[in-house]
Sequence to fold (446 residues):
Amino acid sequence: MPPGILTLAADKVTLSPANTGFMLICSALVMVMTPGLAFFYGGMVRVKSVLNMLMMSFISLGIVTILWVLYGFGLAFGTDKGSLIGWDGDFAGLSGIGLTELWGTTTIPVYVFAVFQLMFAIITPALISGALADRVKFTAWSLFIALWVTVVYFPVAHWVWAEGGWLFDLGVIDFAGGTAVHINAGAAALGAILVVGKRIGFKKDPMRPHSLPLVMLGAGLLWFGWFGFNAGSWLGNDDGIGAVAFVNTQVATAAAMLGWLAYEKLRHGSFTTLGAASGAVAGLVAITPACGSVSPLGAIAIGVIAGVLCAMAVNLKYKLGYDDSLDVIGVHLVGGIAGSLLIGLFATGGVQSKAKGLFYGGGFEQLGKQTVGVVCVLLYSLVVSYVLAKVIDLVMGFRVGEDEEIAGVDQAEHAETAYDFAGAGGGSAPRTGPALGQALNKKVDA
Fold:
């Protein structure tokens, strides 16, 4: 994701209504991804945890939005300070920005860039929530989001995407978030679950998804919104690069879904709807960093590889003993790593940048840069996320009590249930005995 599209010095950059409108639409599409994620995750949990799972995504819309306006945008995209963080007083509270002030050398206003990037900041911590399903306090989770975006997401976004960030200057390619979003969130999920621990009944109870239609709906919304996520990350489409990113997004997602299903059929004997949805998401994750640097044929290869690798990786939790409830590590961490590293093999040098991968005559140089980006973001997020989760656990307890977990976090944390099984209609208790007889007599009299 470029901080600005380069133009000739003699050219005068002016606001483009077309690019501005395009980016506002892309921002809205990325926003839709967070409710889509909520449905995707919500369908995968048991009935007693549905509302909590939805809320763990929706609360990010509230918390991160406010923090982004107050200081997050400045930390992530303000003037570079030592290649590690940014700051600009005019960005604090978004109070010193002119209505038509342009972002860098792009043709879109700063406000538009800020809101587009806000949507990325919102969905990234929401991705983590799937690893902690069924067992954490809502207050603890909300505090974790606030702390995590402040000390992990905002700095990492600066490293990767901001001019002066050390990974950006190194030449690490991350078109739309393989390191800053998916590896970041996947590593954070691992750090958090090492503190929170396993669900009661892990490896013993089935813990099957309660609503596969919701999962498919959520996956469809994610796929739809991801076009804004990827195609919008070039901040305009005057040169066609956004169109390439759009095409590659579709191609890789389709290939990953087919790859996951093929592996699933060979390994387990069935084509499942959960596999189709998960495979699609794996492809979306993997192509995110690479969509601006590979050809459609490269996108097919990345999609198939990611689909198979992520399908294999989701079983690691049973072998290694960590309870990643909804496979955030298997899909987002593994998929993000795969997509980021495969740039070093499939980058053509003819789209986003001139950097070429190994298969296009570029040698191992770009692969080495991608490896540095992957390892550094993974380790930073893992360690800091573990520390944050540990501090929260010591101060207020991260996990709900055993009885509350068994009964369901929906009732314990939200005093609600997702579905009314008491009867058709308003949810009142079923009438029996004399009350039922009186009701029947009234119907007969009528």
